Amino acid sequence: MPIDKLDSFLISITNQYLVSTLYHNSLHGADITHTICLFFNNSNAEEVCHTKAIDLLSIIISGLGHDIGHPGLTNNFQVNSLSDLAITYNDNSCLENFHLAKLFKSLRKDETNIFEKLSTQDFKKIRKKMVSEILATDMAIHGKVINNIRSKIPEYLLQENNNSENNSEKIKKFELISDINNEETTDEEKQALLDYFIHAADLGHNTKKFSISLKWVELLSKEFWLQGDKEKKMNLNVSFLCDRDNTDVPKSQVGFIGGFVLPTYHFLISMFPSLSYTTDNAKNNMKEWQKLVDQKRKKGWTPPKKKKTEDNKKTIKKKKETITVDIKID
Question: What pTM did the predictor assign?
Answer without folding.
Answer: 0.86
